[in-house]
């Protein structure tokens, strides 16, 4: 609670000073992501290496699930999305933004501070203008559809131009016909023709809620046809290593089942015959050595 109060008081410094109500200092970002084993951006946000992000594109939601609950991260998945380009994986480093229903005694102060600093008039654009290659903008718009439209086709183009990834909005977008031709993954709750309105930006690069998931800046965002996982940086390598074993296991299992010689219970989830078990273990060892 003490840290929350300090962060809420933090207005005149970084983003650097984008003038929203709530943001982490570099020190707070490091404190709340202390297990991050990778380099950091200037603001302290974890920077999972590009090579690992590239490997994450071969994951599935089930392979992420195989690790996170066992590490006590049980609230990192959210489903039930409307997905633009579901055939495309979404992978990148989370940049978070939080909006709330507009309240003038809060919203007017933060907007006045933004204008005094010469920042853009529109809060959503101030967030978008911070994005870098490999970022994924994750936005809490509390499920709002009408006037909950984070972007239209122009700002979606700006996001893709800056990041080459995509967008997650617990809210809506507009101009779907203009956004669909862009080769970006977009996860939303709905579409509406109205512009964003009657909301205020209350947080930037702080922990936010997306449905049943808690998202921290620098999490690896992984999205497929099923939904989205937000992976803590310190668990990315463990997820990938476990996925390598799963890929090999599934490859061997399907190879055996396709021969038609075995009942499923003899092979899956693990071979019951000692000779087959030894064959699988040798296969796994060989394939893992090839990967390494």
Describe the structure in your own words.
- By secondary structure, this protein is α/β, with parallel strands linked by helices.
- The chain folds into two domains: 2-234, Glucose Oxidase, domain 1; 238-291, no CATH class.
- The chain is built from eleven helices and 14 strands.
- The chain has helices spanning 2-9, 26-32, 50-56, 61-65, 104-116, 123-128, 153-163, 176-179, 236-257, 264-267, 274-291, and strands spanning 22-23, 77-79, 82-84, 90-101, 135-140, 166-170, 172-173, 185-188, 190-191, 199-204, 208-210, 213-215, 220-223, 227-231.
- Strands 1, 2, 3, 4, 5, 6, 8, 10, 13 and 14 form a ten-stranded mixed beta sheet that branches. A two-stranded parallel sheet has the order 7-9.
- Strand 13 and strand 14 form a beta hairpin.
- Helix 9 crosses helix 11 (274-291).
- It starts with a helix and ends with a helix.
């Amino acid at each position: 609670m003490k840290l929350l109060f300090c962060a809420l008081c933090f207005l005149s410094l970084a983003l650097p000073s984008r003038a929203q109500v709530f943001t982490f200092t570099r020190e707070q970002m490091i404190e709340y992501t202390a297990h991050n084993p990778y380099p950091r951006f200037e603001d302290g946000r974890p920077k999972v290496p590009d090579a690992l992000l590239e490997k994450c594109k071969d994951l599935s939601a089930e392979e992420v699930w195989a690790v996170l609950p066992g590490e006590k991260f049980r609230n990192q998945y959210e489903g039930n999305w409307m997905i633009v380009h579901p055939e495309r994986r979404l992978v990148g480093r989370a940049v978070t933004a939080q909006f709330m229903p507009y309240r003038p005694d809060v919203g007017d102060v933060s907007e006045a501070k933004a204008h005094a600093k010469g920042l853009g008039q529109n809060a959503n654009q101030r967030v978008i203008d911070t994005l870098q290659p490999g970022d994924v903008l994750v936005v809490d718009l509390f499920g709002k559809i009408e006037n909950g439209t984070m972007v239209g086709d122009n700002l979606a183009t700006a996001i893709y131009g800056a990041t080459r990834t995509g967008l997650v909005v617990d809210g809506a977008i507009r101009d779907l016909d203009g956004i669909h031709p862009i080769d970006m993954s977009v996860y939303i709750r709905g579409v509406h023709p109205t512009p964003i309105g009657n909301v205020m930006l209350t947080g930037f690069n702080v922990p936010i809620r997306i449905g049943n998931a808690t998202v921290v800046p620098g999490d690896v965002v992984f999205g497929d046809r099923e939904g989205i996982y937000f992976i803590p940086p310190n668990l990315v390598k463990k997820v990938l290593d476990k996925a390598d074993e799963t890929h090999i296991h599934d490859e061997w299992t399907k190879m055996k089942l396709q021969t038609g010689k075995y009942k499923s219970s003899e092979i899956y989830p693990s071979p019951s015959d000692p000779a087959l078990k030894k064959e699988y273990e040798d296969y796994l060892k060989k394939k893992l050595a090839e990967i390494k």
